[in-house]
Write a structure and sequence with these properties.
Elements lengths: L8 H4 L6 H8 L5 H16 L3 H14 L4 H12 L4 H14 L4 H13 L3 H13 L4 H17 L3 H14 L4 H25 L4 H13 L3 H14 L6 H12 L3 H17 L4 H13 L3 H14 L4 H13 L3 H14 L4 H13 L3 H17 L19
Helix pairs in contact: 2-3, 3-4, 4-5, 5-6, 6-7, 7-8, 7-9, 8-9, 9-10, 9-11, 10-11, 12-13, 13-14, 14-15, 15-16, 16-17, 16-18, 17-18, 18-19, 18-20, 19-20, 20-21
Length: 394
């Protein structure tokens, strides 16, 4: 099996009709004891997920009752869970030949088609079934195979749609998270390979390599690559901003800070509404004690991006430094609302409430801060040296 886990029993139930009844209806002339023995063995093995034992019993039943579709449907399941997709598909097709009105056998035949690389056939069956699955578990399995089949035939737009729907239905499913992320990673690799092949010296290749090197924390190489981009396309949006960030990540000495500041300013010259660049300039001014300038940058960032939690928090912190606690309160309240798991706004709110004489509010915020600190003591580790870290000011 390529992308499937294990069926829940609820998914198996449509095939687990009492086999004895189904078989005896088709083989009245046979000894009831043989039929009962094999049917019971098959039923127990299927229930226990002992697939080899189930297939052995069902193969014998199929010889005794060659015209009973339930036998072949269950035999298909047993084969499938042993990784015998070709034999499973043959069994499901036999079941559907005997009784076309077996929806789950149809779905399983589509899943087997996908695992055998017959992707157009799989899509024809699985796409309509995915829209209205009869069961959550079967819907999950259909979706995983449908996404895989669409990707295999290079219909990446449709694969992405299926992946996003899977994420909506099963947001915390680890296999789905992995498969969808892999889809995007594979597609990204294919596109990047095509980019390097078609335009190896283009600024876009340098841009892509810069982001890879940045992710690997090879900041010096990333800086060189961003600079290569700007040599070819000095007006490309966001590149000056990325250059400023990696410059600060590489070093926080005065020369690096000054170089980063110039990069953020150049970004704003190209994109005056870039809230990220505004925020970074505010952080540089705040860390240098230029609180009036920092306040203006943070306010501009919030005007462009009202849900910018870090900018809200930074503005509240800066207003506290300027002795404007009452002005800081609404920004810190909004930051706490936007990111309830962030302890920093609560700590700063406690200071702001204390400054305006609200002792009860200050105590409540300190309690919230301590609770979050305990819950996330080990979970909130930021990258060392990150210039945008919102650290606690005591």
């Amino acid at each position: 099996m390529s992308v499937a886990g294990v069926f829940a029993l609820s998914v198996l139930k449509p095939f687990l009709q009492p086999l004895l009844l189904a078989v005896t209806m088709g083989v009245v002339s046979l000894a009831a004891s043989d039929v009962e023995r094999l049917s019971d063995q098959a039923q127990q093995a299927l229930n226990a997920h002992h697939w080899a034992d189930a297939s052995s019993a069902l193969e014998q039943l199929a010889k005794l009752a060659p015209d009973v579709p339930e036998v072949y449907a269950n035999l298909g399941l047993a084969y499938y869970f042993q990784g015998r997709a070709a034999q499973a598909l043959a069994s499901f097709k036999r079941a559907l030949h005997l009784n076309p009105d077996m929806p789950q056998a149809t779905i399983m035949s589509g899943i087997c088609q996908g695992e055998l690389g017959h992707h157009p056939e799989a899509i024809a069956i699985l796409d309509p079934a995915f829209r209205s699955p009869t069961d959550s578990q079967i819907g999950r399995l259909i979706g995983l195979h449908l996404e895989d089949s669409y990707a295999a035939v290079k219909q990446f737009d449709k694969a992405s749609v299926v992946g996003e729907e899977l994420l909506r239905r099963y947001p915390d499913d680890p296999e789905i998270l992995f498969q969808v992320s892999r889809l995007h990673a594979d597609r990204s690799y294919q596109l990047m390979t095509a980019l390097v092949r078609s335009a190896p010296n283009s600024p876009w290749v340098h841009y892509a390599n810069a982001q890879v090197q940045e992710g690997l924390q090879h900041y010096d190489v990333a800086i060189q690559e961003y600079e290569n981009v700007l040599k070819a396309e000095p007006g490309l949006p966001s590149v000056h901003y990325r250059l400023g960030l990696v410059t600060l990540l590489a070093s926080t000495d005065p020369d690096s800070i000054q170089k980063a500041q110039r990069a953020f300013e150049q970004e704003l010259a190209l994109s005056p509404r870039n809230a990220d660049a505004l925020y970074e300039l505010g952080e540089i001014d705040r860390e240098q004690g230029k609180y009036d300038d920092a306040r203006d940058f943070f306010a501009r960032a919030i005007a462009e991006h009202p849900e910018f939690v870090e900018a809200r928090t930074a503005l509240g912190r800066t207003l506290l430094k300027l002795g404007k606690a009452s002005d800081a309160v609404p920004h810190l309240q909004e930051a706490a609302r936007l990111d309830p798991s962030n302890k920093v706004p609560h700590f700063l709110l406690a200071k702001a409430y204390e400054a305006v004489g609200d002792s009860a509010g200050s105590r409540n915020e300190l309690d919230s801060y301590r609770k979050l600190q305990q819950e996330g003591a080990l979970a909130r580790v930021r990258t060392a040296g990150a210039p945008t870290a919102q650290q606690i000011d005591h």
